[in-house]
Prior knowledge:
The structure holds two protein chains of two kinds. Chain A is α/β, with parallel strands linked by helices. Chain A contains 24 helices and 19 strands. Chain A folds into five domains: 27-138, Glutaredoxin, CATH 3.40.30; 164-366, NADH-ubiquinone oxidoreductase 51kDa subunit (Rossmann fold, 3-Layer(aba) Sandwich), CATH 3.40.50; 376-459, Ubiquitin-like (UB roll) (Roll), CATH 3.10.20; 464-551, de novo design (two linked rop proteins) (Up-down Bundle), CATH 1.20.1440; 567-621, Alpha-Beta Plaits (2-Layer Sandwich), CATH 3.30.70. In chain A, helix 10 packs parallel to helix 12 and helix 11 (238-252) packs across helix 14 (348-360). Chain B is mainly α. Chain B folds into three domains: 2-61; 71-97, no CATH class; 101-146, no CATH class. The chains are: A alpha/beta, B mainly alpha. The interface between A and B is large, with 44 and 29 residues.
Amino acid sequence: MTGLCNTRLSNLADLERIREELLSQRSPSAKSVHVCTGPGCAAKGSPKLYELFCAAVKQAGAEVEVQAKAVGCHGLCECGPIVLVQPRDIFYQRVEEPDVAEIFRETVLGGRLVERLLYENPATGEKADTVDKISFYKVQKRIALAYNGLIDPTSIEDYIAAGGYTAVSKALNGMSPEEIITEVERAGLRGRGGGGFPTARKWRSCREAEGFPKYVICNGDEGDPGAFMDRAIMEGSPHSVIEGMLIGAYAIGSSQGYIYVRNEYPLSVERLKRAIEQAKELGLLGENILGSSFSFDIRINRGGGAFVCGESTALMASLEGRPGEPRAKYIHTVESGFRGKPTNLNNVETWANIPQIINQGGEWFAGIGTEKSKGTKVFSLVGNVVNTGLVEVPMGMTLRRIIDEIGGGIRDGKRFKAVQTGGPSGGCIPTEHLDARVDFDELTKLGSMMGSGGMIVMDEDTCMVKVAKYFTDFLQKESCGKCTPCREGLSQMLYILDRITDAEGQVGDIERLEQLAELLEGTALCALGKTAANPVISTIRYFRDEYDAHIMDRRCPAKECRGLFRYEIDPEACKSCGICLKNCPADAITGEKKVPYIINQEKCTLCGTCWEKCPFTAVLKV
Amino acid sequence: MAQDRELLEHIVERYDGDTGMLIPMMQDLQSECGYLPAEHLRYLGGRLKVPMSRLYAVATFYSSFRLAPKGAHEVTLCMGTVCYLKGAPSISETISLQVVNCMGACAVAPVMLVDGKYYESVTPASALEILYGLATDKATAEKEAEI
Lengths: 622, 147
């Protein structure tokens, strides 16, 4: 794409002119192939597909105008690699290298469908040829992910042509900072990082705070295991984040911004860096943006691999070059944050919502969602569901609809047991609350929380005590160690949970866990510690019988905890093939031809080899 | 170290000697050297007028920093008496296992990252195959180099 590079936009009219120029170059019937290069599809080999499509385009030469684009995450990672063919919006899934030539010949050049690569509805068997016919996408509403999968994230031209940076232009052209904050207030936008604090109120406090300079920060330290919403936005539409920050900085009165990205997301850093450079070249970042008196610059910092740095005060300590230890927040960061100056920190998804709110108005945004939670929320729907991936839905949709309609229900015909939301600070929600509407307050009421948007679905084979232990172990390792309740309390909780899953649970352990949890909630210094017991408390609340079974009956109902179940051979299913006997490392299996084999429970070490090796699934966990 | 001094000066200049950018500087140093050599940290501390204790606090707080060098692959190799006698020192190729909390590709879990490449739905068996592939990749590369 040529045309606008090396031109600095010196006023608002320039931006409009460029957009018109770009649009005139792109006819709506233009042919293009979009290859998803998000983390899910990339793991399945999509970068190679992109190369092959590029080669095919080159080979086709000048006769046909086709573009191959590497785009950000489409969401339906389960079916990756995903390829979208425009202008007809044809959606191909599970594309492999040999399919490239066929797609190019049949669909791109010939306009015909390649039936076998179309998405098939697992329930009805119906094939969907375009995106809007796929149930996974049908019930979604995309605001933060609006550009994902549609534009090339490395091209600012793509973003501008799709309507990008119009919100900045609108904000700078006749909106006062106060009007912007009022618009965000009208939208009812609440922080998407987990806390759900009203964004406009934060902005106003920072704007009114004394002190100079003021800073704005984008929190891209997405540390919750099981969450990748922010990664998808930073990698799929980095300019949305920059545009959001520009508007926020103008409203707050800041001229310096920081984006703090997780160390594990090198591609996010690369995409954001590139986007910042492009924006600078065009004069959308830097001095006198679009000819106005407003100047703003953004710097990227990489995290160092510490979960606690997602906490705002710890993040700011890290930005100052210190260990990421949080501090008590009796003085808010909007008054004294980064370098002791007024600092406004918002999450990636929050920033990405801002341009849409300015463009379409606060009222439009407030028209989506529930009474107190407006707009949409992006979730990473993972675990034991059929369709795993990223989904963006209006607030207030029930968990059941998300899991059944979008997620396609539970995998392998198993039964649903619980859905974990809110990451290590959240909790597990059981079947009886599946009709709860997903918003900030409803999830908190259920003992979980919205968090940043991880949604991990668990089936009947998941041991809830083990889930609680996993999160406690995670938090215990990630605790910074500054305050005693978190440092020592979590270690004690883990010690008790270890005991319970090792068949050594004691009567009174549940009460001990509850006591420690209360202590943590009441006395820990930061949000990590205060909410650290949520996974334990919510599993005790809804699955107390499982804890009891572990402790009293020495039995793990999900048959996951070694030592709390045993292996037996089903005499009716056993074909006496002898495979289990041959593989048993403890010589615990006896048997002979035509007689069902038997496991000697005294010798059995519960290694599970027989269970894995039996070709007739005759070895059972009981 | 003499030539590394130039590297360190370059890194410090890159961030205008701003002590707030200490972590990015240390990250740059690590990506150049593979770890944070003590001597380099001492030089960096002197240059920025930051005490060694603070550099050490930062280096040990964040799990991505390493104070020891690492190879192309990194494994823990037993140098117990018997292993030593049976030829452990000749085993030079190593592989490192680093456990991280979520790489953001949960939809295709379990995920393993090997030398920058993502592998999806990894099983113990396929993990071994992938690692085995590293050995064959290397062998093929060497063979090609000979030709």
